[in-house]
Specification:
InterPro entries: GmrSD_N. By secondary structure, the chain is α/β, with parallel strands linked by helices. The protein is built from 18 helices and nine strands. The protein folds into two domains: 193 residues, no CATH class; 162 residues, no CATH class. The relative contact order is 0.12.
Length: 386
């Protein structure tokens, strides 16, 4: 999807230590909710999946194993819920398990290519409308898919669904899962503890990407807007990918572009620390700052519609260094009142410039290369507008 230099960067990147966090006063209470109660909580909207959580990522075989474990009484890992208000909970850890139960009772399993869209619908509506739930473009039937217990010995639960569990249905409905409900007492501003809990609970055995961690630690109204704009048809067309990336790499590309625009002159490695710093700053953005930022993105995407998509490609893959450099340089010029008009020829001129290529070919996150790309892009855009 992305150019090789950036793919290599993502493969090699390590999650770094964050700044010292605040001391919290939290209360936690264990509750053993049965499956029927858990489903009712989700269905009623009492339990919600916060915006910074990743999409549902389990396949149907893994989901089936969880359901089988509940039916036969095997232990299931506990779930962490954060109490926002009375009878209002956010899922901190356990989304995959909770949504598997929800989907199984509904007898519908989400198709992989539509999960980002389903997630948005679920987040906006607080539930999944029946017309979407029963649309085969979004969901397939959730029949358990379980391997043989021994060669030639079929699993007795294989191909069953919730309505055909028979005598096992009551057993499933009444099976309990331990839920740890956490509530913050101090500090009174509760905007940070949930994200720190999410980060720490989800880095023990799950390989989250730096952007997934960042989205939890630095969640803000800016990030809410960023997630919405990531679904913009013009941006999806520019990337050449209809569905958002399950691990938020497309979100990170947009974030990098904003960060280089706003803080590119102050850039120092690593890119992880740089994006964390920008995300932390963005938590303080008011409505006017967010509006100004995303109006520039709106303008850029409208102008970029005039550019053939292959101009953004390097070795047949979307070039992140090219996009972020042109975006940052163009937005700076626009902020200064300088006329910027895009064309396929102009984007290709920047992409094929020998100096730009030298800055974009290797060690793409070194200071001289990030600043060098931005300088070349600005010079060419400025010359074209004179």
């Amino acid at each position: 999807m992305f150019d090789d230099a950036v793919e290599e960067e993502w493969r090699d990147i390590e999650i770094e230590e964050t700044d010292q966090i605040e001391e919290y006063d939290l209360t936690s209470s264990p509750n053993d909710f049965n499956v029927s109660t858990i489903f009712s909580f989700i269905e009623s909207g009492a339990v919600k999946i916060p915006g910074f959580q990743r999409n549902y990522v389990w396949d149907i075989k893994r989901a089936s194993k969880l359901i089988e474990s509940l039916i036969i009484g095997l232990p299931v890992p506990q779930v962490f819920l954060y109490e926002e208000d009375r009878n209002r909970f956010l899922v901190v850890d356990g989304q995959q398990r909770l949504m598997t139960i929800y989907y199984f009772v509904k007898e519908r399993f989400p198709r992989k290519e539509r999960r980002s869209e389903i997630r948005k619908i679920f987040g906006d509506a607080g539930t999944i409308p029946d017309d979407i739930l029963h649309d085969d473009d979004y969901f397939e039937s959730f029949d358990l898919r379980l391997a043989e217990v021994r060669p030639g010995g079929p699993n007795r639960f294989n191909k069953l669904r919730y309505s055909t569990l028979g005598e096992y249905r009551m057993q499933f409905d009444l099976r309990t899962i331990r839920n740890i409900i956490v509530k913050q007492v101090r500090p009174s501003d509760d905007t940070s503890s949930i994200y720190e809990m999410f980060n720490r609970l989800n880095t023990g055995g799950v390989n989250l990407t730096p952007q997934e961690i960042r989205s939890s630690l630095y969640h803000s109204s800016f990030y809410d807007d960023l997630f919405k704009w990531n679904l913009d048809d013009r941006w999806r067309a520019l990337l050449g990918r209809r569905e958002p990336d399950l691990h938020m790499r497309d979100i990170e590309v947009l974030l990098r572009a904003f960060a280089v625009w706003r803080l590119g002159d102050e850039y120092t490695p690593s890119m992880v620390r740089f994006l964390n710093r920008f995300s932390h700053n963005a938590q303080r953005y008011g409505e006017s700052e967010r509006s100004a930022a995303f109006s520039n993105l709106d303008w850029f995407l409208s102008e970029a519609k005039n550019v053939e998509r292959n101009a953004w490609l390097r070795q047949k893959k979307f070039s992140v260094p090219l996009f972020e450099s042109i975006f940052a340089a163009a937005c700076r010029l626009r902020d200064e009142g300088f006329p910027v008009v895009f064309s396929t020829r102009l984007v290709m001129q920047i992409r094929d410039d020998s100096e730009f290529q030298a800055y974009a070919s290797e060690r793409t996150t070194h200071t001289e290369n990030v600043k060098g790309r931005l300088r070349v892009a600005r010079t060419i855009l400025e010359s074209a507008g004179k």
